[in-house]
Structure to design on (388 residues):
C-alpha cells in the first residue's frame, strides 16, 4: 500500500528498470468482484505492468512465525496467503519483502519476491471480524522510519508492524479520529472515508486516499485525520483502491474496477491519466518512495550538502559539501527504532570536498543520516540502506 532521494538512472531504460523493481500492485481478475490474481511489478511512470511476482495459482510454502515451521493452509478460507480478498500491501525496502493482509483476516503475510517464500505472522492484536466491514484492514504502507503501518476502514485500529530480533511484532497505536474541521467529510464514515490506501511522508505522517477520492492527512502524534480535499480529474465512478509514490515523487492511484492509473499532484489534488494499460484491476499499490522527501533537505540543497551512496554495499558513505560551507558539522546515524548508533564530528574547510565517513559496526538494514550545524540545528536528513 500502501513505499529518500534515491539516485536516478541517466538513461530512460534505467529509470524504467528501477521502477519495475520497487513499485508493486495486488491485481485482480477481470471481474467486478474482489478476486486476487497476482502480485506484480508496475512501471508507475508509464502505467504498464511488469513481472508477475506471485499468483493465485503459485505453489505457496508458508512458514508460521508462531509455530516455527511450515503450515498447511485452508485455501477455501478468507485467511490464507492466496485469499481472494487481498487488499492491503506494503513494500518493506529494508528487507526487500512484500507485506500484505487479506481483507477479512487478521493474518499478516511476508512474501520474499525472489525466493517466493512466505512468512505467516499470526496477529492477535488486530480485531478483524469477517462480518464487520468497519474492522477490515484496507490501508497499508511503509513509514519513513522503515516500519509498516496499517489502518482499518473505520480508523479504530492503527497498527504498527515492526521487526525486532528477527521476529515481526504488531502493536495497536490507537484510534484515529476526525479533525474537528472535517465536517461532513468524515474519515470514519463509509461514504467519505472508507477503503482506499495510504502513503507516508518524510515526517512519518500519512495520507489516506479513500475509495471515494477524499484525501486525509493523518498526524501520527495526534492520531487525527484532517480532510484536505477531493481528487479532481478522475471519472465520477472511479474507486480509488491503491496509492503509492513513484520514483519521481508523484502519487499514483489505481482502481479495483478495471481502469487506468492516474498521477496525482498532492498540492492541487489534480489527477492526470497515465498512458499504458487502461483496464487494470488493482486492489492496492506499494513502493519504497515517500511524499515530500525533498522537503527535509531544503537547507541542505541550498548549501549543496548531500551524502552518497544511499544504498551502501561498502563500509562508508561520502559527505559532499561545497565551498560555501565551512566550520563544524555533526553527523548522526539512527536506526529505525530511533537509537543513535553512530556520531562523528566533521570539519568543513572553505572548499568543495567529499568527506569519507566509515560506518563502524552497522549491520544490514535501514538507517537515517542526520547532520546538524554548529548550533545543533538539523540541516540534513536522508535514509540509507546498508546491504553489506
Amino acid at each position: 500500500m500502501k513505499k529518500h532521494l534515491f539516485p536516478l538512472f541517466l538513461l530512460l531504460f534505467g529509470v524504467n528498470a528501477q521502477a519495475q523493481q520497487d513499485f508493486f500492485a495486488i491485481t485482480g481478475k477481470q471481474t467486478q468482484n474482489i478476486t486476487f490474481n497476482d502480485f506484480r511489478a508496475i512501471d508507475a511512470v508509464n502505467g504498464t505492468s511488469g513481472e508477475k511476482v506471485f499468483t493465485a495459482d503459485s505453489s505457496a510454502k508458508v512458514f508460521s512465525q508462531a509455530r516455527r515451521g511450515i503450515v498447511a493452509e485452508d485455501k477455501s478460507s478468507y485467511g490464507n496467503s492466496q485469499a481472494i480478498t487481498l487488499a492491503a500491501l506494503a513494500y518493506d525496502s529494508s528487507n526487500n519483502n512484500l507485506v500484505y493482509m487479506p481483507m477479512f483476516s487478521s493474518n499478516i503475510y511476508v512474501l520474499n519476491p525472489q525466493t517466493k517464500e512466505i512468512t505467516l505472522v499470526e496477529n492477535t492484536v488486530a480485531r478483524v471480524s469477517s462480518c464487520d466491514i468497519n474492522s477490515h484492514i484496507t490501508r497499508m504502507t511503509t513509514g519513513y522510519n522503515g516500519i509498516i503501518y496499517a489502518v482499518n476502514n473505520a480508523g479504530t485500529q492503527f497498527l504498527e508492524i515492526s521487526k525486532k530480533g528477527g521476529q515481526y511484532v504488531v502493536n495497536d497505536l490507537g484510534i484515529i479520529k476526525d479533525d474537528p474541521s472535517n465536517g461532513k467529510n468524515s474519515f470514519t464514515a463509509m461514504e467519505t472515508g472508507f477503503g482506499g490506501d495510504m502513503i507516508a511522508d518524510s515526517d512519518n505522517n500519512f495520507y489516506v486516499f479513500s475509495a471515494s477520492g477524499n484525501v486525509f492527512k493523518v498526524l501520527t502524534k495526534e492520531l487525527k485525520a484532517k480532510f484536505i480535499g477531493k481528487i479532481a480529474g478522475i471519472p465520477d465512478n472511479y474507486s480509488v483502491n491503491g496509492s503509492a509514490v513513484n520514483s519521481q515523487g508523484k502519487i499514483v492511484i489505481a482502481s479495483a474496477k478495471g481502469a487506468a492509473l492516474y498521477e496525482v499532484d498532492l498540492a492541487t489534488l489534480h489527477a492526470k491519466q497515465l498512458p499504458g494499460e487502461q483496464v487494470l484491476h488493482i486492489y492496492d499499490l506499494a513502493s519504497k518512495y515517500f511524499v515530500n522527501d525533498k522537503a527535509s533537505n531544503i537547507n541542505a540543497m541550498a548549501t549543496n550538502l548531500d551524502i552518497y551512496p544511499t544504498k551502501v554495499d561498502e563500509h562508508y558513505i561520502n559527505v559532499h559539501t561545497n565551498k560555501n560551507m565551512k566550520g563544524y558539522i555533526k553527523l548522526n546515524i539512527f536506526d529505525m527504532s530511533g537509537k543513535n548508533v553512530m556520531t562523528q564530528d566533521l570539519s568543513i574547510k572553505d572548499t568543495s570536498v567529499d568527506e569519507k565517513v566509515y560506518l563502524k559496526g552497522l549491520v544490514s538494514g535501514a538507517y537515517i543520516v542526520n547532520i546538524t550545524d554548529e548550533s545543533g540545528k538539523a540541516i540534513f536528513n536522508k535514509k540509507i540502506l546498508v546491504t553489506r
About this structure: The first helix runs from residue 12 to 22. Residues 1-20, 294-302 have pLDDT under 50 and may be disordered. The longest strand covers residues 327-335. The CA atoms of residues 78 and 104 lie 6 Å apart.
